């Protein structure tokens, strides 16, 4: 697999922040919505499921949405299909999603833009036969773009630590799950497509998804938090866009500094 650059995607149309969106499953229905909450710490899971059950998980978007990408983060599906509702029945995407020997725990599918209100996954086999099904995150979205350049990445994993000094002189540390931040910088960026992506990120009025590994964690020496396939964050720019031409030369590129922080919506 060739190295992939940072991929930016629009917010998940099935995100839990949309009160209209609802998930349902033929098994483990009480936990179906857990796959929509942006968390790798909770999941849709079944109980006493076997492969022959042909278990289904589906999401009702209620409103029409265009999608070009579907991502399944942290799952154990070996054989499965993903289809969309065409108004009368579930049918295949332009590039059918029908896996039979999948061995990955994160899957990314792309296809021609499709307008739909519902999406269904049918699981007919798990990577360990007859295991309970699990899916930590389901994402349906469209691409903003993938960088061609290679920015310097400065990530920060926040735990919101608060230090309380005790009378003894010892420190009590209070912390939470926290959030993710990343600064991306390029000394001179001249690629027109990349600059268009950067401009669209700064202009975005809502959060967008940032996938630092771009779908390929093999390009890194080891699997590290922030760069894994499962690490996709809803983020926004926290600094202002300053389109400064390098040394004032009109034919030169621009210095790019992106300060991204994980957001609520």
Mean pLDDT: 96
Largest sheet: 8 strands, antiparallel
Q: How would you describe the shape?
A: globular
Structural class label: mainly beta
What is the name of the CATH topology of the largest domain?
Jelly Rolls
| CATH architecture descriptor name of the largest domain | Sandwich
Number of helices: 1
Q: What does the secondary structure layout of this molecule look like, with pairings?
A:
Blueprint lengths: L6 E4 L11 E4 L18 E2 L9 E21 L1 E9 L4 E2 L5 E3 L6 E21 L7 E8 L1 E4 L5 E7 L3 E4 L5 E4 L4 E11 L2 H12 L4 E4 L21 E5 L16 E9 L3
Antiparallel strand pairs: 1-10, 1-15, 2-4, 3-9, 4-8, 4-9, 5-6, 5-7, 5-8, 11-14, 12-13, 14-17, 15-16, 16-17
Overview of the molecule:
- This protein is mainly β and 265 residues long.
- The chain has two domains: 12-142, Jelly Rolls; 146-262, no CATH class.
- The chain is 5% helix and 46% strand.
- The chain has one helix and 17 strands.
- Strands 2, 3, 4, 5, 6, 7, 8 and 9 form an eight-stranded antiparallel sheet that branches. Strands 10-1-15-16-17-14-11 form a seven-stranded antiparallel sheet, with helices on one face.
- β5 (77-85) and β6 form a beta hairpin.
- The two termini are 33 Å apart.
């Amino acid at each position: 697999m060739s190295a992939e650059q940072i991929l930016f995607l629009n917010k998940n149309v099935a995100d839990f922040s949309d009160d209209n969106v609802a998930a349902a499953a033929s098994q483990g229905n009480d936990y179906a919505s857990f796959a929509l909450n942006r968390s790798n710490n909770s999941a849709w899971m079944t109980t006493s499921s076997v492969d022959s059950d042909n278990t289904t998980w589906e999401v009702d978007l209620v409103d029409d949405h265009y999608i070009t990408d579907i991502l399944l983060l942290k799952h154990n599906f070996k054989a499965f299909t993903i289809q969309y509702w065409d108004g009368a029945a579930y049918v295949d995407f332009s590039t059918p999603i029908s896996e039979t020997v999948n061995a990955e725990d994160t899957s990314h599918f792309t296809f021609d833009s499709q307008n739909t209100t519902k999406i269904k996954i049918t699981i007919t086999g798990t990577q360990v036969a007859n295991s309970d099904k699990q899916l930590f995150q389901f994402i349906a979205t469209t691409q903003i773009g993938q960088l061609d350049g290679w920015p310097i990445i400065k990530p920060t994993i926040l735990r919101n630590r608060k230090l309380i000094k005790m009378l003894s002189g010892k420190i009590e540390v209070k912390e939470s799950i926290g959030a993710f931040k990343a600064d991306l910088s390029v000394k001179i960026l001249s690629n027109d497509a990349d600059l268009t992506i950067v401009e669209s990120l700064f202009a975005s009025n809502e959060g967008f998804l940032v996938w630092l590994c771009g779908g390929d964690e093999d390009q890194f020496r080891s699997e590290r938090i922030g760069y894994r396939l499962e690490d996709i964050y809803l983020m926004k720019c926290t600094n202002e866009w300053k389109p400064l031409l390098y040394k004032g030369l009109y034919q030169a590129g621009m210095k790019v500094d992106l300060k991204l922080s994980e957001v609520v919506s």
